[in-house]
Amino acid sequence: MLPFLRAGARRSISGLGNHIGHAARRSSVGGQLQFRSGSSEAVASAVPIPEKPQRVTLSDIQERRSRAGRLVAPTAAPSDADMFKGPTAGKPKAKRWDHHLTHESTLRAPCKLKQAARHLKQPGIISLGGGLPCPEYFPISSLSLHVPVPPGFSEPDTLSGGETVAIGKYDASVPRAAGQPPAAEYDLCIALNYGQATGSAQLTRFVTEHVELALGAPPYADWGVCLTPGSTAALEQTLRMLCDGPGRRDTLLTEEFAFSTALETAAPLGVGVAGVPMDEQGLLPGEMDRILAEWRPEERGGGRRPHVLYTVPSGQNPTGATQGARRRREVYEVARKWDVLIVEDEPYYYLQMGPPGERKKEQEGSQGLEGFLDGLLPSYLSMDVDGRVVRMDSFSKVVVPGSRLGWITASAQLIERFVRHAEVANQGPSGFSQVILHKLLDERWGHEGYLRWLMHLSDEYTKRRDVIVAACSEFLPKEVVSWNPPLAGMFHWLKVRHETHPDAASKSILEIEEEIFNRCIAKGVLVARGSWFRAQQDKPPSGLYFRTTFAAATPENMREAIRRLGEAIRESFRL
Amino acid sequence: MLPFLRAGARRSISGLGNHIGHAARRSSVGGQLQFRSGSSEAVASAVPIPEKPQRVTLSDIQERRSRAGRLVAPTAAPSDADMFKGPTAGKPKAKRWDHHLTHESTLRAPCKLKQAARHLKQPGIISLGGGLPCPEYFPISSLSLHVPVPPGFSEPDTLSGGETVAIGKYDASVPRAAGQPPAAEYDLCIALNYGQATGSAQLTRFVTEHVELALGAPPYADWGVCLTPGSTAALEQTLRMLCDGPGRRDTLLTEEFAFSTALETAAPLGVGVAGVPMDEQGLLPGEMDRILAEWRPEERGGGRRPHVLYTVPSGQNPTGATQGARRRREVYEVARKWDVLIVEDEPYYYLQMGPPGERKKEQEGSQGLEGFLDGLLPSYLSMDVDGRVVRMDSFSKVVVPGSRLGWITASAQLIERFVRHAEVANQGPSGFSQVILHKLLDERWGHEGYLRWLMHLSDEYTKRRDVIVAACSEFLPKEVVSWNPPLAGMFHWLKVRHETHPDAASKSILEIEEEIFNRCIAKGVLVARGSWFRAQQDKPPSGLYFRTTFAAATPENMREAIRRLGEAIRESFRL
């Protein structure tokens, strides 16, 4: 059992009852809620949650950069978000999470060789310390990339479109001309050598500023970032940091249907999973509260009450559900009540979209950028007065998956433990990925260009979403298939009324699912079976679902694929 | 306790006694050996170890490729070494290692979404399955790199040197002209999307062939490879696959001085370390045998006898020691005797060099390449009749560290378990790194060019080694400092006779080490303290050492740094 009592609580959790009750009323799943308001073992802390994200502006960032001057960060230079953040005066510090750390994470010591690198700051010192290869032997003297440019971002496959951006080996150390500064702040000499496990200072600056610009800085002072080799790596590291396996037998809270790779990450660690029932807005805070309130270690093989929630708030994988702003606050309050840390996995965050047929007004006209940002649902980070959120961002869905590059944002304590692991787990992301993304996002596009790119992508995926939803209306038998048009992401989730299937009496849900899946394959369409995503494979399935994606196929192929799917379902249901 | 008995053993282990005895006589550390020859619990298997590596030739590879034709491996195409290996008829299969796998590794199930990808082979299928972003939205339409070319490899910083290699987005799918095949086998469209955790087919082919060309295929049939995001990641994954922590309390065998990051990887997993005494050729097989023979779980908190050896055979980090061919066979035999798996970490393998002042004859003249390969010490892979070796290779030291790219070679069983972990730990290396290295190594240089690059690098590091060794002769007080010139790698290890230090009676070895280290910093030279690398920090240090590297500093700076080090030591010793 964890210590839930906190001193200084002034606000009763009972004030939350209505919110959570409201959420529960919308639930398509939950029954009577067991909301334990005012329980003596669980109290919310005193700091109020900000009403809306506190974002900085592009001109704030510009001013900050010009004050700071040229960034000088040579090979393996240590860096952290504090070097690049805006002022944090007046904000509280994050709570300490020692009681949440695993045995493994607690045992991690700093990397001795990386520690020694601090001596390199001494002027004139010659290093015979670290085994860093000589850049003279890097067999690439320059890289260049051809990229699309704002505002149109047309695919520059012809020579007429786009621009070429060059990266030299010594751009950051060789002066442009006598008495001039070097041409760039980052180059191949730095990017292609060993670096810090946090990633480079150059890209750390970019993502730190981006967090403040697009999400709003967290409402506590000591937050930080760490670049990762993608959110797959970040999630495994985070679970190893927070969830103990055999012995303490931790259980992770997730949506009842969850990203299958996340489930496959937890299982071999000996970490159990408790799936929280969902509605069209994703996980239900009342249900989460109920699971936590009703937790009895003795009924769970001695496993302690879950203390970590893994959630995909926007365009959830696989259901496509997006948590509204109020839903997020309610979930956060439940997390505070039960001392739960929130792992917020947001690969699709910027692919938010209005309902079909309704062009998002904020994306039109000259005030587009401001409107785009104002229209984004708040990140858990922006309401995180305690520092209990680990947010995972990734460039995979919005730049390229092959970059294997993302970052986490969390409290300094958790970032430090995460970095200790990264030092031995991967040493940070690829230098090629880092320098290419720096050149594209920071140097060529800048923050504004990148935000416009995200708007552009969100528009493009909105069009794709509209195609698949229209195709479903046209081709799927509505008497047995239903859906909510997704408001973010890449996934469209279809519910099939298995109970009306002609073989419902003799076949299980999984058997019907398999039969339809096989018919789909025979007809030439691959969809994902809903059962692959069930958080608790030991429980009987609650329904029959298929996940489709509107990310990749051409509009014509998407229509054709949905037509085939409709045929497969009709045949199975003998319609 | 593990089952050591194997059926069909015909050869007594006692035939090894002389070898191991010989090794022990050279030991600078060991006392009386307890070599338990003929013990009933430990017998070597029947298959004889090949006398020398069975390498294929460049023309074998050329012929194989032309027979196979153009490699067609689109986005996320599965691949393995079997698609690219030479014939294995007549070779035995690797032994099974189920009893070596950790609980965690045993629990790993295949990734459901990646499994579903097999349906994509069906002609005409439309995928609404995986959430792969549309390459139309990859904001990079081409990349190009300027690279040095064989045979000179002069650094192409001026426009006159080197060549430019271009990578387009659709090079592998768009025909060069009507009726023609596409221009390339790999492109940005494939490399920058999600791929398999094994890495791409294109680079898998290259490393598979490279293993056969340069190391010789292992003498068992079912070996495989898996690309990794560098050997740091590979080691952590391998330890989690083979060494159980709390509960079974495994102990890892290493050299008594070992790569500190490797030690820092093992410690938080709850895996203990047993350091094997070394001589100038690295770990002593007789000592390894003694540790295993004398192992008493009841004296080790219940921990079972070590069943995994982690070793850096060439240019060991930190000691610079290189195991000779005979030493490697002896270590392998001890590993067979006690059913120990060998994790062979070989980042410096191709940086082998002759003794100072003796130009390696094989690198001169027209027969250079053949001679270079013949001169390489055998990899444990090449003698691995059981399939008990996991070899880790890396492009970090021989191309660029920032690629975060390497590969492991091991038995199919171990590769399969490793891949299951990679699917949730990182999803394989960066696509930028993969496509850039493919273009450079495979397309532009080809295998021959890459081997010539390795020869070139080995020559360059030999010159650097000669500089540091000469500087040590010139500037270090020989009455208290001694060394063996390294025969591979990047490190030069200095032994200091602490017992002659004027404060030896009142100060510990660690105190003297610290005092000299601090004097070095004050004089402007950073070296690595030997104690950072002690495998067993709980044991008293056996001597006073410093690790220096000849990898990075200019020759002038190296001389100056060694001069400062000499001054620091003289002052400390009041010489």
Strand tally of chain A is 17
- The CATH architecture of the domain at 13-55 and 216-351 and 361-429 in chain A comes to 3-Layer(aba) Sandwich
The biggest beta sheet of chain A reads: 7 strands, mixed
Radius of gyration of chain A, whole Å:
25 Å
The two chains with the largest interface, and their residue counts, are: A-B, 119 and 119 residues
Which secondary-structure class do the elements of chain A indicate? alpha/beta
- CATH class value of the domain at 13-55 and 216-351 and 361-429 in chain A: Alpha Beta
Q: Write down the overall geometry of chain A.
A: globular
- CATH H level of the domain at 13-55 and 216-351 and 361-429 in chain A: which superfamily? Type I PLP-dependent aspartate aminotransferase-like (Major domain)
Averaged pLDDT of chain A: 90
Unreliable stretches of chain A (pLDDT < 50, length at least 5) are 1-44
The proportion of strand residues of chain A reads 5-15%
Region (Disordered) (chains A, B): 299-326
Keywords (chains A, B): Aminotransferase, Pyridoxal phosphate, Transferase
Cofactor (chains A, B): pyridoxal 5'-phosphate
InterPro entries (chains A, B): Aminotransferase_I/II_large, Class-I_PLP-dep_aminotransf, PyrdxlP-dep_Trfase, PyrdxlP-dep_Trfase_major
